[in-house]
Amino acid sequence: MSLLEITGNVVNSIFATNPLSNPPILISIALVLIIAAILAVISKLLKQQFILAYILTGIILGPLVLGLVTDRTLINGFAEVGICLLLFAAGLEMSLKKLKETIGTSMISGVVQVVVVSLISFFVLIALSFSRVEALWLGIAIAFSSTVVVTKILSDRNELNTLHARFIVGIMLTQDVIAILALAVLTKNLTLAFLLVSLLKISFLLVLAFLFFYLLKILNKRIMQSIELLFIVSLAILFLFVSLAHLLDLSIAIGAFIAGLLLANSSYKLEIETRTRALRDFFSVMFFVSVGLLLTHISTELFLLTIPILLILIIVEPFITALVLKIKGYNTKTSMDIGFSFAQLSEFTLILCLGALSLGIITQRAFDLIVLVAVLSIAATPYTMKLTKPLYSSMGRLLDLIKISSKKEMGFQDSKKKTILIFGCHRMGSIYLKNLEKYQEKIHVIDFNPEIIQAVSKKRISCTYGDANNEEFLDKLSEKDLKIVISTVPRKDDNLLIIKSFKERKPNIFVVATAQKIDEALEFYKAGADYVLLPIIIGAEQCLNMIKNLNKKEFSNLKSEHIKYLQDLHRYLY
């Protein structure tokens, strides 16, 4: 008898003699939270995602290992409430403004990515002896990537405001919409009639949400008078739409998502997110634990099946994404940075597969495969996001060989000598441009956002479309006439590369870098920067001086002047 079996028997014997009147549910929840907390602490120490800890908790407590939690009613209850809160949170994140911002490149990339990856996965799964129906739904599920995992990593790296982060989030929002549509038509026998009826049902829920939105606008002031009432009303709307979705024979996830979408565009979105976060986090834990609980076996055969799926996720999906972005005019480095962020399975993948398993569309073997791939791919995400550099020489050159219409050479250049070089021209960079207008003929701007380059070109300011994190690109820039190099880019690695590149070639050049943290600023000085800007500290000092020296009337005048300045600054490029 193995150690795990002995442990399971001992714990089961303890449960059998427990004096509580109804021990299974209470002790099951206690076990889930205790084991999840221990594994979450270990995950934090190992710099892994908490989702892994929660799925592993389910695997340990489920039939695969200890078999301590076997009540399927309890498991399904955990999963359903967890799905509702997760999809509600996803809907809250998808305001109409964000949807508008993702139209265009992000949406095209997302749709192409999902379609191509689904087709490739479908044929690979057919080759691995899965049925056509299973291969179809598994292929669709494999195409979705985790917004939660990737945004957390980007946040930890302080990269959420970068261009590639905006595209990553935009593409993932597109994936989320496609996933919701997939949930709506999840059935064994998919027909055109079923598809049309499902879309009509979703349309009905959306119209109802639209009416509720205007009703809430009328009741807004009264509801907001009580935070507790706002919390209860938000949950009531959530479960109302979940119930309606159930009555319409749709996935409850669709109702939860639409409820979130409704409240995302209300005046009190932030308050709703804050009040529901703790509840969402608790039941999200339960959902991911329930996924692990439903895993029934792991074998050598199953591990071998994960290899082609992981190759699709780690190589094929990033390449397809990078290719679409390259076609849309973004350089190879940026395209690959974005592409390699999609090498993991999503929460929507697990939700879709859980629904497919309950409907008998996929087998337990297929579900076990998806869970195992999810665990491995999520664990590998921090490392796969760094694959751009090692694979740049091979995949990057392949992308460069493809003859496509590109914006790589876009920009405006004249023959005049340039003494000032500015990296990044969106926020801080536009301030430099506006205030250095009399030196405009001596300035050259570099940015890897085509929209920024187009705006600068229209002003007849010398500019080049390029990436500050590309060493080959920096080496091609002439330093002959340069006297000042200013970097407004937020990323630490980019600034270090700029400092190193120019200081090695021309030690007397004056280099200004921008840091987000004090330790970064000290590192930039050590690398050779002549001056380092810390926007947060400068802003805090300026604000403190104003508070000390200005009265209420002067602040009012300052506010009006500031609004006008910001509007002028925004209009300067756009």
Index terms:
single chain; 574 residues; mainly alpha; Rossmann fold; 2 domains; 7 strands
Short summary of the structure?
This protein has 574 residues and is mostly helical.
Relative strand content: under 5%
Supply the CATH class of the largest domain: Mainly Alpha
Structural class: mainly alpha
What is the distance, rounded to the nearest whole angstrom, between the alpha carbons of the first and last residues?
72 Å
Q: What is the overall number of helices?
A: 25
Model description:
The protein is mainly alpha-helical and 574 residues long. It folds into two domains: 3-399, Na+/H+ antiporter like fold, CATH 1.20.1530.20; 411-573, Rossmann fold. It has 25 helices and seven strands. It has a seven-stranded mixed β-sheet with strand order 1-4-3-2-5-6-7, with helices on both faces. Strand 6, helix 23 (518-527) and strand 7 (531-533) form a beta-alpha-beta unit. The termini are far apart. The model is unreliable at 13-23 (pLDDT under 50).
What order do the helices and strands come in, and which of them pair?
Elements: H1 3-16, H2 23-45, H3 50-61, H4 72-93, H5 96-102, H6 105-127, H7 132-142, H8 147-156, H9 163-184, H10 192-224, H11 227-247, H12 252-264, H13 269-293, H14 300-327, H15 332-339, H16 347-358, H17 364-384, H18 388-401, E1 411-412, E2 420-423, H19 428-435, E3 443-447, H20 450-458, E4 463-465, H21 471-476, E5 484-487, H22 492-505, E6 510-514, H23 518-527, E7 531-533, H24 535-549, H25 552-573
Parallel strand pairs: 2-3, 2-5, 3-4, 5-6, 6-7
Antiparallel strand pairs: 1-4
Helix pairs in contact: 2-3, 3-13, 3-17, 4-12, 4-13, 5-9, 6-7, 6-9, 6-14, 7-16, 8-9, 9-15, 9-16, 10-11, 10-12, 11-12, 11-13, 14-15, 14-17, 15-18, 16-17, 22-23
